[in-house]
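quick one, 544 residues, struct below
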Amino acid sequence: MRAGRKPCPHFVKIQGRRERGLKKRIQLLLLGLLGSICLSGCRNVGENIIQLSDTEALEKSEESSTEQLKYVFLFIGDGMSYSQIQLTNYYLNAVENEGEVLRTQNKLNMLNLAVTGSAQTYDSTSFTPDSASSATAIATGHKTWSGCLNVSEDFSEKYETIAEKLKKQKDYKIGIVSSVNINHATPAAFYAHQESRSNYYEIGLELLESDFDYFAGGGFRRKTGDDGDKENLYDLAKEAGYMVVRKQEKAQNLKPSDDKVIVVTENMADRNAMNYELDRENEEWALADYVEKGIELLENETGFFMMVEGGKIDWACHANDAGSMIADVIALDEAIGKALDFYERHPDETLILVTGDHETGGLSIGFAGTNYDTFLTNLKNQKISYVKYDADYVSAYRENETPFENVMEDITELFGLQYSPTEEEKMFHEDSADAHENAAGEETLELTNYEYNLLKEAYEETMQRTGEETEFSQEDYIKYGSYEPLTVTITHILNNKSGINFSSYAHTGLPVEVFAQGVGAEKFNGYYDNTEIYKKLAQLVQVD
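---
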């Protein structure tokens, strides 16, 4: 957590929502029992006895349950599976109880939604999908190749998305919000049709053609094309009738009468995305603020669909940065809280869905070096994301040829890792990564000789690089991925000392969560393919 920032908020409405969720489940159970009786029985029409077929009864039930669904929230935690969610929840419990008592209370809004399901995520390429193909499955119900957006495997067909159908068939207002670029893979999967997710400029053009009502969060990536020789997408947006808002104050003053808008974060970070939550200043809008403004702008009597992506969860997991990942899962959850506030005002007209597109990083709760122990409060000591550390510190180390002793001072201040290189203290350190036998609290952040040497080796590798490398030896890639050796080694050590570990810098084939609350939520119970998310939702909103 950042020094001087308020601790992660406790959600004071969770208990009330839990009670309402229980009531809803009881109601669903009673309806199910009644339905069973009806299916096995009959109904009287004058003197006639009419038998109801299973199909007819199901159709009538679906009609009655969907006629009021007007507002749909779809939250996608990019790279977020059960391990990311559970670690965040464990962390919140550990912080609240100072790490002394194991707790499993649900501190996250998403864990208190009424229905829980699971979805498998493979695509046409692999059991390990990418964001474009997995988001395509969620948005259209079709599998495709990794890297493709809403096109068939032979590229001959373009798939219409749930958002496009709701716009065209039901005149819903549509909102797309992301903490990364608004023309990145996951948001693009709801309006674009491209053979490659890397066609950022072409995706941006499709965004403008979508006629969707609200885009918000990160800005355009490659706004003037790959070579910088194309007309600026922001200028084209204005020509297409969009109000482009770059200042937070102006965004705050937007009204429902302001037609189509694109709201871009005023404080852009890496690759024109929003800041990591860990780096966000108090006055800077969080993901929840963009969702709250979206609700204000989109609410109408016809209905709306809003897709919200926590995209930097994925980016943090790629970099094996657990501290940044946890903060962004919390940020997504706070955005879900805004949807729940809306749901409380419109419980008979709203559906909230929360899922992931895939898991990233192979995150495990447990590490060989700590045996069965976890020390999750250690992660509180991280005050900065990996990308900000690279930008603000590592670049300066190279430029100034900063000695490692001075670098260690920054590491201690920003990540809490400490080393005492006196001969006397060295005697008490085993030269291994397994020196946590009597560890507690801050003691777990004392570096062993082994860990100190790993950091020094990584520092030397970083100082030899330019920061622009794209090819790496097998050994270097296993150690550091494509990230700064020093930075990723810092996060690896902090993770391991906390009792967690990443096995990959890439995606994995793990299933993802599907949480649901509201009209038709019961449909999302069970274990199914991610294409079923689209199919279930399309059935509920009654689009072809």
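The domain at 70-363+511-541 is CATH 3.40.720.10 (Alkaline Phosphatase, subunit A).
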